[in-house]
Design brief:
- This protein has 2 domains: 105 residues, no CATH class; 102 residues, Alpha-Beta Plaits.
- It contains 3 helices and 9 strands; from the N terminus they run ββββαββαβαββ.
- It has 245 residues and is an alpha+beta fold.
Length: 245
Amino acid sequence: MRKINKPLAAIVIAAAAMGLTACATQPTAAPAANVSVDNKSNTIQVQSTEKVKVVPDIAEVSYSVSTQAADPKAAQETNTQDVNKVIDFLKKAGVDEKSIQTSNYGLNPIYDYNAGQKITGYEMRTGITVSDLPMDKLGTLVASSIEAGINNIDHIAYMSSKYDESYQEALKKAVSASKVKADAIAAASGVTLGTITNVEEISTYNDTRYEAGAAFGAQADAKSIAVEPGQLDVEAQVTVTYGIK
């Protein structure tokens, strides 16, 4: 949680009210609904949330290559060859080497449970994550990757290169909403709204940006796979405290 304290200054941050508390200067006045009276603090506090929608323009794809063989060594060797072929294809397709990462290595026995859990072979699996893919090239690249030897596409994460500025916009829209609600509470309480005395940013800043799960079969004849990323909700949430007169 990040905290911003700026007495006597207007601050841009907030959106749709969730919890409200208020304080009035006259202890004998009857409090309005959802408003508490406190002579010492003389504040109104509003918690707000606001969202901004953006269209994702980049993607991250999590692939994996699975191979099977009669013994562990053969499974590993075959898997390494298949993974190298896929990486070579991705580089030739224009993917930056820095955007390709291998991970999630796994070697497991294959059991025949009908024969009393007899081991009949081994499966080697290697994950390949490709990031910073332009959205307009994603469908073709995914389909071509299948032809190149990828046999599992675990998921696709859609992201926006404009996430940071969209988040700032959500913060700005937030304060406008909190100010309107705080004004209404002040009027209902018979007091005048003052300046902002404290702001707490309680939003979860998501570095992943946005993720939508997707799974595809091995469509070897596909020339392109349809990709519909939709829109991304960039959310900001804050608690704003106003002084009252």
